[in-house]
């Protein structure tokens, strides 16, 4: 059984909330008390976003939601390491990263409400809209990184994906290209232990991070519930990419504490003791312990963080329930930039189908 707290794991903040010294310290030397408080606020807010969206799904306001509960440190630590002109290619679970990029809350949920085929304008926040095809975004990120290199820019592309995605051809093909072209791309794998009901131990006989060196890509394993560790290794990888050192692979060892999506029931395949073990490694609790020990978790700070979380949750809920209903034929818009005969035929069929209800007396569809 592979360790989740072993010697090969970068860890700067222990589950007990103490700082663990190590060679990666220099990468977070600027993270003073105020910045630690900022990371704590981010994690509390994105957990609240996640809880609010989950509640909205349970209340029938969203069709589906992919929770990030437990993965806040991996997403905030890495997300806050990025520069504005870096470009993120994520899966559906990186709502914490989207928060760091400045995504509008309504844009985060319009797809999950079924109101739109996509959420935000990628070029406004330098983050592509979430990819549901497992691992495809690794190729997109690599292509983008190759282009940045050809353009002579020093921005970096970051691909976020899960442990399951590393078994997809796309991720492996992306690594071949990234290594061949020394593309400035960071592969950030959140190993949350499960690919829906498949445990990581089934698909990986060795650490996920061991795969990348076979492609010629340096890799690191980090405690994914340690926000400082995640920030440090991401900063190092970004620095390598910016300075011409090519791609890097990060395995953030974390845990999906909730279901895969709100349509999933993990009690059918997961040992409840496993969840209990991971609760002891909660990413927010451990930073709270450190802040408390340093006298930085005083009442007014906690009040401000909670007020911010309430405000964001309120904006998310308001944006969700006030989204205008899309037009009946809107689904056919913006699929292709130029007219497409197959799509036109489908639009026409669907129009006739809708009209048939009118012909039958305008009954409810
Ligand atoms: C190419 C492809 N195959 C299968 C699926 C169905 N699918 C959706 S999520 C998922 C599991 C992904 O697990 P992982 O990559 O570990 O990411 P996580 O959901 O744990 O964040 C699968 C197989 C898909 N969306 N795309």
UniProtKB/TrEMBL annotation:
Cofactor(s) recorded in Swiss-Prot or TrEMBL: thiamine diphosphate
Full protein name: Pyruvate dehydrogenase E1 component alpha subunit
Molecular function as annotated in GO: magnesium ion binding; oxidoreductase activity, acting on the aldehyde or oxo group of donors, disulfide as acceptor
Keywords: Oxidoreductase, Pyruvate, Thiamine pyrophosphate
Matches recorded under SUPFAM superfamilies: Thiamin diphosphate-binding fold (THDP-binding)
One GO term of the biological process aspect: branched-chain amino acid catabolic process
Name of one Pfam family that matches: E1_dh
Residue ranges of every copy of the Dehydrogenase E1 component domain listed in the record: 42-309
Provenance organism: Crystallibacter crystallopoietes
CDD domains: TPP_E1_PDC_ADC_BCADC (cd02000)
């Amino acid at each position: 059984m592979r360790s989740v707290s072993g010697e090969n794991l970068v860890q700067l903040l222990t589950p007990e909330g103490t700082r663990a010294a190590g060679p990666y310290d220099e990468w977070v030397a600027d993270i003073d008390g105020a910045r630690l408080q900022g990371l704590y606020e981010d994690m509390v807010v994105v957990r609240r976003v996640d809880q609010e969206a989950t509640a909205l799904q349970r209340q029938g306001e969203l069709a589906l939601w992919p929770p990030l509960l437990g993965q806040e440190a991996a997403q905030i630590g890495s997300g806050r390491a990025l520069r504005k002109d870096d470009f993120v290619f994520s899966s559906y679970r990186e709502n914490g990263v989207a928060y760091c990029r400045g995504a509008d809350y309504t844009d985060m949920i319009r797809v999950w409400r079924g109101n739109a085929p996509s959420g935000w304008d990628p070029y406004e926040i330098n983050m592509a809209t979430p990819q549901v095809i497992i691992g495809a975004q690794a190729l997109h990120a690599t292509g983008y990184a190759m282009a940045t290199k050809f353009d002579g820019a020093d921005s970096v592309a970051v691909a976020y994906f899960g442990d399951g995605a590393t078994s997809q051809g796309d991720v492996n093909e992306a690594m071949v290209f990234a290594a061949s072209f020394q593309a400035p791309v960071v592969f950030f794998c959140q190993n949350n232990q499960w690919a829906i009901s498949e445990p990581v131990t089934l698909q990986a006989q060795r650490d996920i991070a061991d795969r990348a060196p076979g492609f010629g890509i340096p890799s690191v394993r980090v405690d994914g519930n340690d926000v400082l560790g995640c920030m440090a290794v991401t900063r190092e990888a970004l620095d390598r990419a910016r300075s011409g050192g090519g791609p890097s692979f990060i395995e953030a060892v974390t845990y999906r504490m909730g279901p895969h999506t709100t349509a999933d029931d993990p009690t059918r395949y997961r040992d409840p003791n496993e969840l209990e073990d991971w609760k002891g490694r909660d990413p927010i609790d451990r930073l709270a312990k450190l802040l408390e020990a340093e006298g930085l978790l005083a009442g007014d700070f906690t009040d401000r963080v909670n007020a911010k979380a309430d405000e964001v949750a309120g904006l998310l809920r308001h944006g969700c329930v006030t989204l205008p209903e899309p037009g009946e034929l809107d689904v056919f818009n913006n699929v292709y930039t130029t007219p497409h005969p197959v799509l036109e035929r489908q639009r026409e069929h669907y129009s006739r189908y809708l009209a048939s209800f009118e012909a039958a007396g305008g009954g409810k569809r």
